[in-house]
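Justification of computing resources. Each target in the renewal requires a structure prediction run like the one illustrated here; the chain below, 155 residues long, is used simply to show the kind of job we budget for.
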Amino acid sequence: MALVYRVVRQKYADRPLDVMGTWLNGGRWNPPGVGILYTAEHPALALVEILVHMPQVPYSELPTYRLFTLEIPDQNQRVLTAEELPAYWSENTYGRSQTILRDWLAKPDVLALGVPSSVMPDGINYLLHPTHPTYSSIRVVEEKALVIDRRIWHE
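Resulting structure tokens:
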């Protein structure tokens, strides 16, 4: 088994494996209408992936978050390197990058697909596909408050 990490807003903490947000809005790797679960190889990377989308939010107005540690089966994962992806994969507009994983999104051959982080390219984010037969085997092994140190935030 492998561990991955997910940061979830407190108001959604009762459903840490829910993909409704990405189904509605899409993300870097999936278009709207296709829900996947975004996770990271390390808690710090999971935090960075959330905070990069809130640069103008004052520290005092940051939402409350929970950090989930998830256990996934080792045999159901594959990692793609930046060299295996088109040069545009890390663009800040998601239109083109949402089609790169079209085949996996339509028919996932593995539960967890590792992709480089655009925020920290040496880090790996794991995309978990809810229609893969082993999705139901994901276990939440820990949940705790995510404390964001004021020193990493500017106001």
